[in-house]
Amino acid sequence: MPATDPRHAEAEYIRGIREPLPPGERVLWQGAPSWWALAVRALHIRKVAIYFAVLLVWRLAALLADGQPLAAALAGSAGLAVVAALGIGLLALIAWLSARTTIYAITTRRVMLRIGIALPIFVNLPFKGIDGAALRVCRDGTGDLPLQLQGGVRLAWLHLWPHVRPWQVARPQPMLRGLREPQRVAAILKEALAAEEPEPRRAQVVSLPARALPAREAPTSAAA
User: What is the reported pTM?
Assistant: First the structure.
């Protein structure tokens, strides 16, 4: 049976993008971040909750120390509690909306990100512009996959946030955040990079410690 001409094969689409991929290009994986992972690691919702909890305890203790009864002290702390609930709820809403509107995709030729809540931005990263990648798997099972770009590729840190590696402002690194199957996604990217250029190349996927990404140290390019 003769091979199918890729020029006449059915066009493939990335979810949320109306334009089809060029002939011969296939989608290897596409997905979205976990909203809770975005809330915890990008918006620091836990730290904000701890901050407000400390303020509430301090406020309640100060009112009790002034001789007010418990009921009055609780009533006097109610306003701060409302502010805390609104602040934490707003962060959770931003994380949820960001996860709902974000699409990550890996094709046979590139990594693509559709990001932005109100105004979607499409970030197109051909493999030839990717100099390396690193994987961090967190304790909750999700993971982050930052991409180190070659020197000629420039992106704005604010345009990418929160899908960007922390503290890498001078040379922003787009990051696939809160991946639910991080090892699988990293393996797909590694195979795609290797297939894109049969000869050994510098772009590799490496593993980082589970606790934290190095803040200012770029990922190495050694094989995982």
Answer: 0.79
